[in-house]
């Protein structure tokens, strides 16, 4: 059985109190992704943000699929301009 990344829940995201804003265009970032057994730093695209969270889109090479979800804002670091 493969592990799924653990993203923020609707309760943690709390869009009722923290409105989402779209990044146009998306921004290249590094984000910590949690799995039940381990955490990984992945290169991702930030597609939206709130006061507390960032929505990211990233490629998961082990299962060869793209994933999207919300992570805590402090789990995300902008990529250097040379990588944009």
UniProtKB/TrEMBL annotation:
Organism domain of life: Bacteria
Name the record gives this protein: Uncharacterized protein
Natural source organism: Arthrobacter vasquezii
């Amino acid at each position: 059985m493969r592990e799924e990344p653990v993203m923020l829940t609707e309760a943690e995201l709390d869009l009722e109190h923290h409105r989402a804003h779209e990044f146009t265009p998306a921004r290249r970032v590094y984000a910590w992704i949690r799995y039940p057994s381990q955490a990984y730093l992945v290169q991702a695209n930030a597609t939206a943000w709130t006061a507390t969270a960032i929505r990211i889109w990233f490629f998961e090479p082990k299962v060869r699929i793209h994933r999207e979800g919300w992570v805590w804002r402090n789990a995300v670091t902008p990529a250097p301009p040379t990588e944009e």
